[in-house]
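Hi everyone, sorry if this is the wrong subforum. Our group has a chain we'd like a structural model of before ordering constructs, and none of us has done structure prediction before. Sequence below.
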Amino acid sequence: MDRKQFTANNNNASSTLNSLINSKLHNNGAHILYMFNEYDKYINNAVPFIAEGIDKGHTIVLIENCEFIRRLNNNLLRLGYSQKDLDAIIKMDYASYYSKNKNFEAQRSSDSLKDLLEPYIDSKITTRLWGKVLAQGVQVTELREYECMCDEYVQGKNIISVCTYNALVTPAYIQNEMLKVHDYFMLDERVELSPFYHKTNSSAITYQEKNRLQNMERENISLMKKNEQLRMEKDQEIVKVQLLREEKTSAENANKMKNTFLSQMSHDLRTPLNTILGYTQILLLEENNTDSQHSLGKIYDSSMDLLKLIEEIIDFSAIEAGKISLHIEDIHVKSFVENCVHSIFETQSAKIVIKIDSISDDLYITADKLRLQQVITNLISNGMKYNKENGEVSIFVDYNHLEKSVKISVKDSGIGIPHDELVSIFKPFYRTKVSLEQWKGSGVGLAIVSKLTNKMNGSYGVMSEEDIGSTFWVTFDGFVEKKAPSHSMMPINRDQHIPSLSGKLKILYIEDNVDNIEVLSSMLQVIGDITFTYETAGEQGFAKAVRIQPDLILLDLHLPDVSGLSILAKLKAHSRTKDIPVVVVSAEAIESTIKLARKEGCQNYLMKPVDMNKLREVIWEHSNSK
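Answer:
Right subforum, don't worry. Here is the predicted structure as tokens:
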């Protein structure tokens, strides 16, 4: 681009500035204020101002930074000006120039400018000054006075002075004050007469004027401090939000890892237990095996203790992680307590008498049935476990009409708890000194009681005397109402007679663990007339199910090729298998997984180690529903 083209294409501000300069006004001196907003336009406005000065042989003085001077030189060289032209320009780095005046003072700064310009002032040769004023941190009174002196100095001389300020960092009140002491003001797009300019403004600042400016400055400083405080608070809030987001992500990742660990631990512990308990249950049913009955009983009882320990730890971890959901309903208290006691008799062999005090048939409690059963059976089991030989456990229920609450108490005649340990008894993994010496346990049973009770908006407590016994109690919302109770299904006794199968069953088992396949096959042989087949991979199992259409499918969730849940979904989607009952048999004991499996369409969920009675019950149920 040549010089003429550049001038033609240049923006309005440069054109107006050139028109102003070429008029006769500048012969009397021109003091122009330039408040720029865009740096590129700022450079583009400076180039023609300097270029025209070179063309006309004017003296040119630049007070700017090195970057500005470098870009200006490059532009001028592209327009065809020589290095000799550029070297003739008097250049000063504005940071160095103002550093001579460490504490900006109007008089000293004005004297410095005069000393700089004086050698070049000529009545016949115009002097062009383009200088940026370092306004930050300068008192407005000193800045105003400095510009007054500059305006007075320029007037009547052959000087065109463009004083530039960065409008983005110069407060509005300073910009307004500068308009009073510059006869022209320039923006990125235009140059105009200053509406506030008057010669009298260039005279010395009065006391009242100085006081007014200082008040404005104090207000501005105060606002700047407040803005800075707000900015810092905003930055702190951003950091806080970011930290919270990171902590949330970290917690979510930790929960995922925890769930993965619990799932894997459950699977790895339950799988060998499935083999141990499976064969033990089969051998215990062989009446002629009298020599081994005692040893097998010990193996079975120890395995059940280990299983209970695993279930307690997994249950507690799930509660801690908030991975349980509640289904609150009205529960008939009398039948509920009787069922809890019956289930205890199914699993406990201790010679302990359990007594149930008279319970009103009209009494109901509001809670989650499954979780309430965990709470009550835990308290009854503890009462039996930490009891004396041939001891008693008494259960009694009270209704508070005023608070409309039901209190269930479990009293034992056991060892009692030292008074100084009562405050710790509900803490996770805490066990009393006596229980550590005499009984096995994880120490999470009562912690589960406390956490489940809290989740159901209940309360709990304990009273105890050493060598006399303890009374544990829980309280929940309840009411009295005359209506028929809803009795739940009673647990099946190990020795209870189970009706025989109504016909031969064809069962497909999809499982990759050979030991699990063998133990389940042995159980099914004992249970009845069953045709048993299996596959060790998910896709192969699905294909066989489509081909042979079994009466019942037993499905593991941990398969080598695909997830058991995906196979379940495929079975339920295929026209030839969608009506075949599917029972999940898995070591996955996490409640969310069980719910998901039921949602996907499984009819039952058996956890490993497989209880033979429960397996028999499930098979009998599906045999009679054919």
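For your construct planning: The longest strand covers residues 469-480. Residues 486-498 have pLDDT under 50 and may be disordered.
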